[in-house]
Each structure stands twice: as C-alpha cells, then as structure tokens.
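This section describes the prediction task in plain terms. A model, or a person checking by hand, is given the sequence of a single protein chain and must write out its three-dimensional structure as a string of tokens. No templates, partner chains or ligands are provided. The sample shown here is typical of the held-out split.
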Amino acid sequence: MNYLAYISLAVYFIAMLAIGLFAYKKSTSDVSGYILGGRKVSPQVTALSAGASDMSGWMLMGLPGAMFLVGFETIYIALGLLIGALINYLIVAPKLRVYTEVADNALTIPEFFAKRFGNANSSIRIIAAAIIVIFFTLYTSAGLVAGGKLFESAFGLNYDLGLVVTLAVVVSYTLLGGFLAVSLTDFVQGCIMFIALVLVPVVAYQEFTSADTMLNFAYQSIPHFTDAMQNVTMLGLISSLSWGLGYFGQPHIIVRFMAIRSVADIKTARHIGMGWMTVTIVGALATGLVGIAYANKFGMKLTDPETIFIVFSELLFHPIISGFLLAAILAAIMSTISSQLLVSSSSLTEDIYRVMSKKESTEKDMVKMGRFGVAGVAIVASLLALDRSSSVLSLVSNAWAGFGAAFGPLVLFSLYKANLTHKAAIAGIVSGAATVLFWIYAPVLADGKALTTVVYEMIPGFAVSSVVIWVVSLLDTDPCAKTTKLFHKAGRVLAEDR
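The expected answer:
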C-alpha cells in the first residue's frame, strides 16, 4: 500500500492518543470522573459515543457483507436495530440517568442493580459484574482479532503486529483518560464512520449510469426487492426485528445515558444519535448493494464479502483518502474495544474488588485499580486473540443476545416496576443467560442442530427472563420500604428535571 495511506493512519493514531492525554488531565482525579466522566458529558458526545461503541466493525464490514450475500432481507435487521435504539432513548435513557444518580450515585450497571434494592453489596452485583467481565473479555478479543486481520489484509502487515498496534493504542487512551477519553475518541470515530459510509457508496455508484442499471447488475446475484420482501417467513421477520431488543441490556451502550449532563439533554442526544445511526446504516447497506453490482459488472471475485468496504477503499480512492477510509474501519473496531475495556474494568474494580475488599480505598486508589483493570482485561483478551480461530469467537458472536436477555428485562423492570424483588432480579439474569446458551448450543432438533437455526435466541431469552422476573416478584415477599421509597423518589426527580 502507498506510504501516504500509512501517514493518514499515523495521524489518526496520534489524534486518539492526544485525546487520551487531554482526558487524563481533565477528568480522572476521582472514580466518578474516570468511570462516568463526572456525569458531565455533552449530548453530542453522548450520541456519537453510544453509536460508535454500538456498531463497531459490524457497521463497515458485517452489514455490507450481509447485504452482499443475502440481499434486501438484511433491511429487516437494520430496521430492528433502528427501532430498538429509538425505544432505548425514549424509555431507558431518561430514567436510567436519574435513577442511577438517586441510587446513591451508582456508577456501574451492577451497582445500580444492587442499590436498587438498598444493599450496595448484594449478591446480584457480583453476579452481574462477573457476566460483564467474562463476556466482554471474550468480546474484546474478537475486536482485537478484527484489528489484526485488518492490518494483515489491508496493509500487508503481520497479524500479530496488527493486534499489538490496535491493543497498544486503545489501551493507552482508555487507561489514561477513562470514560471521557473513550467518549471523546468515540465522538471522533463516529464522525469518521459517518463520512466514510456516505463517501464510499456515493463514489462507487458513479461507476453506473443510473440506479436501474446498478440494480440490474445487482439482481444477477440477489433476489429482486419485491421477491425478497415476499419470501421472508414470519419467524425470519421476527428474528431480524428482535435484534432491537438487545439494546436495553448492553452495558457499554446504556452506560452512556448515565453519564450525560442532564435529562433535558437526552432529547438532543436522541435526535443526533438517531440521525447518525440512520445515515450510517443506510450507507452500510448501500455499500453492500453497490458492491454486488460492481462485482458483477467488472467480474470481480470477492472471496470474503465482508471486505467489500476495504476493496472499494483501495480501488476507488487516492491513497490518502484510502488511508482515511481504512482508519474508519479501525475506528469502528477501536471504539467498541475501548468501551468494553472500560465497562469490564469498572465492573472488575467497582463491583468485585470494592465489594470483596476488606479495606477502605481512596478515590486515587480506585482510579489506579481501574487502570490496572483495563490493562488486565486487555492482556487476557490479547492472549485469546493470538489464536485467531479460537472457539470463543463463536460465543462472542452471540454476546448481543446474551447481554440483551440477561440484563435487558431487568433494566426495564428496575426502572418501571416498584415492587421488583432482589430474588426476582437474580432469577431474571440467570434464566435469561441460560436460555440463550441453551438455544445456541443444545442439539435438540432432529438433525442435531440447535434451536437458533429456527428463531434468534434473543426472543426466547428475553421472554423467559421477563416472565421469570414477573412471576418471582409476585411469589416473593414485598420489597423493603427503602427500595420502594428510592423508586418513587427517582420518579419525582425525573418529573422535575423534565
């Protein structure tokens, strides 16, 4: 690759590290600053940070690849995600911002679950934190693998070297600047992704004289739009749309709502976030669609459809722009890795170390432990990522459903059901996670396949967790007066803030 592309990438890395140093000086003197940016994050940064950490490399590689392979049916997944993100902003964001602050300034999702029941050291905090640390460590390893493969395929560098470079840059700014660094870098990375996903499909489309011509070439490989819409089964439609349910339980996304400056700013964040998400998802789908037509028109053989964005970046643009576009993929990967590292570290230090430690720790000690946590999770994730064919990656691919089913219903019940009980909350987490794992791995069908081949595991996992929480809350004793008092206090504060 031309050296100019490397210069573009180097500039990007330097910018990320500079943001980390800025955040280090700005907001890491106490735990609240390191973990939540002192709850002073602007709506603009909140919106793009949530979007960038949500979409990851899936937006620039996975979604275009799915459109390239499957065709217009992919639209339903995109639609499900858009609906889910919008509902998340509407019904989760405002209450979670207020309730976590009223609950004795809960800084993490597990801590909120615990303080929701008036006991900061309850068992649910350890259980939820353990799930986050385990699954996000695996999730992070997948992101590192993606980074290593990007350097290998796009830059012709050694896979291990690409992994190390990705890890070094992400860990540096996350370890230094904490939540503010992650949010600010996500903001920049979100802007890069936005530009890239508008630029690539528009430039690629210029190779065709009209939309009809482009579609005619695309229809040589994929079903016509009308046929694709008519051939979708009801279970297939429900499975695709149900991706949106996952938003309610993704710790690295909903923690952004906890850090925004005020409830009043959430409306602004929603408008920006949904606008960004709509444009980028349409751009990703368009990249895949134009990619099919381009491949058919020019007889281009693509062994891996998920690399269509990379191929366009290298074929159609000047090396400097090409470097910028490849940096967009890296930005998508790094934004999610940094978010997962910080959430994992926060749970490791705040929800496990602080609860189990017998000695009092100062604010500076906990910030230091948070940095050790980032490094520790990163090291374990990098060791897993050294084996690019590791079986953990198949588990990570289902982590969205796992988190959505384990935490999603409980987040909603915690915010909307006053008489939710501690036992019901634990039962909901365990049953949701267990159902997802059973649905993915149990070979119960006649041909030895798992139930995930019939319907997406998010649906049964979310449903089982919700029913279990409701039933156990009815059968269990009423929650203590302190718990209901906190719930109603949060409701009053929310009404005042609005």
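For orientation: Residues 159-205 form the longest helix (47 residues).
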